Amino acid sequence: MIVLVVNCGSSSLKYQLVNMDNEEVMAKGLVEKITLPDARLTHKWNGRKKEIVQPIPDHKVAVKLVLDLLTDPEAGVIKSMKEIDAVGHRVVHGGEEFASSTLITDEVMKALERCSAFAPLHNPPNIIGIKACRAIMPEVPQVGVFDTSFHQTMPPEAYMYGLPYELYKEDGIRRYGFHGTSHRYVADRIAEVMGVKKEDLRIISCHLGNGSSLAAIKGGRSIDTTMGFTPLAGMLMGTRCGDIDPAIVCTVMDKHNLSAQEMDTLMNKKSGVLGISGVSSDFRDLGEAAAAGNERARLALDMFHYQVRKLIGALAAAMGGVDVITFTAGVGENGIEDRVAICEGLEYMGAELDAERNNVRGKDALISTDDSACKVYVIPTNEEIMIARDTKDIVSR
To answer: What positions does the entry give for substrate binding (predicted)?
Structure first.
């Protein structure tokens, strides 16, 4: 079975074509700046790369261009679109309606539209991508894989907010959590690497990048996570503020005469390590600035490391202990010094890094000492293969 994995952003489209017989990535690429005259498609296959720069007015045109490349005599890896057996779509928010991946029908599309109210920046582009693929490939099964579904196993005491109960019942105000596809992949993979059943593990999965979240995974099920009603909640991130006193929102809006949209922009795009440092949201830039003596860059990194460490402690308490801590995503997989700073102070729970083992980037690796009671691993995430696996499973039923 050949599965096309599609991940649509507001002006981008990431894709992979996967042969599920051996999970080989046959081709992959990225379309950027959709709707702009200088839109760019970067297509990779068989160790080769091709770039196309041309106007791409909408996602439907982007999907058509991708399919043309996949079947191109030179850059293609399949002879025709008929070889694509199914399409798997990343969808950020499934609300309470989707506790697992699902085959997309007209009724499901209506439900996705309803969920857009929870993720107005993310879901609409996801829906546009689905509609584009359905229009071009009407006979090909389409599957939605949701970032939120993995966290639907959280108990009420973990997902409820201390607001009037009616806001939950009538408006769906609750903690949903995100990065679920990544956390689920890591939970499966770490069990495989360690040679144990995931049902026997208490895992704290640290997905650290421009967007960051931690998840407490007990027996293979998410029981708590740091993101909430939106991906803004939780810890300090690249440009997002994370958890703050709610009264700050009213105070800042009133004092600086900000609209709700302006306040949302401030918290989502002007805060985080960018807002603290004034340098960058890129942790590599922050590390260089801090090493050069920039105190605000150092403060931003210290805050980030402190908050991850504190949340690890909280999630360990939620599970009654922890067997393994995993680091994944851009910072988690590549931030050697970040991992050191985060783990300093976790010795009380039996987590001790081995400096030589920790000198690793982007591959599965044990990075704790042999006598560390709580093991620490780097596990590169692979959300695309999870989407492809779910898609194969659903269309094969």
So the answer is: 90
pLDDT interval class at 287 (50, 70, 90): very high
CA-atom Rg of the chain in angstroms: 21
Domains defined for the chain, CATH in brackets: 2-146 (3.30.420.40), 197-383 (3.30.420.40)
- Residue 282, marked binder: yes
Question: Could you tell me the CA-to-CA distances from 9 to 3, 26, 30, 130, 132 in Å, in that order?
Answer: 20, 22, 11, 12, 13
Residue 204 · residue 322 · CB < 8 Å: yes
- Catalytic residue, candidates 147, 224, 338, 390: 147
The pLDDT mean for the chain works out to 94
Tell if the pTM clears 0.85, that is, is over it: yes
Tell me the pLDDT tens digit for each residue of 236-283.
Answer: 999 999 999 999 999 999 999 999 999 999 999 999 999 999 999 999
Alpha carbon distance 391, 397 (integer Å): 10
3-state class of 299 per DSSP?
helix
How many whole angstroms separate alpha carbon 260 and alpha carbon 269?
A: 14
Annotated binding residue 14 = yes
The SS3 call for residue 181 is helix
Cα–Cα distances in angstroms (integers) from residue 380 to residues 27, 175, 186, 314, 341, in the given order: 19, 26, 8, 24, 19
Q: Please tell me whether 207 is known to bind a ligand.
A: yes
